[in-house]
Predict the structure.
Amino acid sequence: MSSIPTRVTLKPDVRLPLLMVALGLALLPLPLSPWPTLVVAVFGLFLLIQSASLRLEFEEEALIVRQNGRELRRFPYDQWLSWRLFAPWLPGLFYFRETKSIHFLPILFSPKELREQLELRVGALEVPKDDTNTRET
């Protein structure tokens, strides 16, 4: 029997939204102030709201995105072609590709839990950091 949990909901991580708000405030001394500050800080606040309302839930057959408990989208693992985490220490971006589309999501969740669940459920599809895109001739 497999020891993979049937359902795992990732904990929110507000580091990226708070980093964006801080970056916006750091832009205050610029000559174009307050516009760069407003744009970046408002984006950070938007991400903060998203981190409070969105949840990634890993189930047996699919990754589910929920907002305030309501299912927004379901991504069945059998449709996945690849995935990769970019700059998870910030946290940065989560990329995955399905047979019909490509997705980029800001990491608004625990990057450690995200990596653990991805490795458990679709680990073989991870794109290595040093992918050289070698082609067969």
Q: What stands out?
A: The chain has one domain: 7-125. The radius of gyration is 17 Å. The first strand starts at residue 7 and ends at 9. Residues 131-137 have pLDDT under 50 and may be disordered.
